[in-house]
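Team,

Forwarding the record for the chain on the shared tracking sheet. I've put the sequence and predicted structure together so nobody has to dig through attachments.
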Amino acid sequence: MPPLTDHPHVTVRCQENPAVEVRLAWPGDADLPHFLKETAALYRGWTGERHWRTADGDLALSAVFRSGGHVTLTWTTRTRAPWTASLTTCLEAGERMAALAAEVDWFLADGSACV
């Protein structure tokens, strides 16, 4: 695999200790934008959880439809270290999910993107 800097990536740092960080990179075959677009298309809702993860399992995403037309997304990093980190966001099921899908698609398609 090429160095992480050859692919779009996100670095997650520990607020308490900035020396602790996880860098998540996506090779060109990542299907996260597709998962997000499918989730956005289900704006009327679904039952249960929808799941996505990278091939190596370093990043996982679960989506749950909530009342009021919102989607809860839980982003979880898993590394070879004995810990995980999760972040939960809540978005409007239609337009905001579609916008997120487009933004992630742009980020992953443009290796020079900065976050």
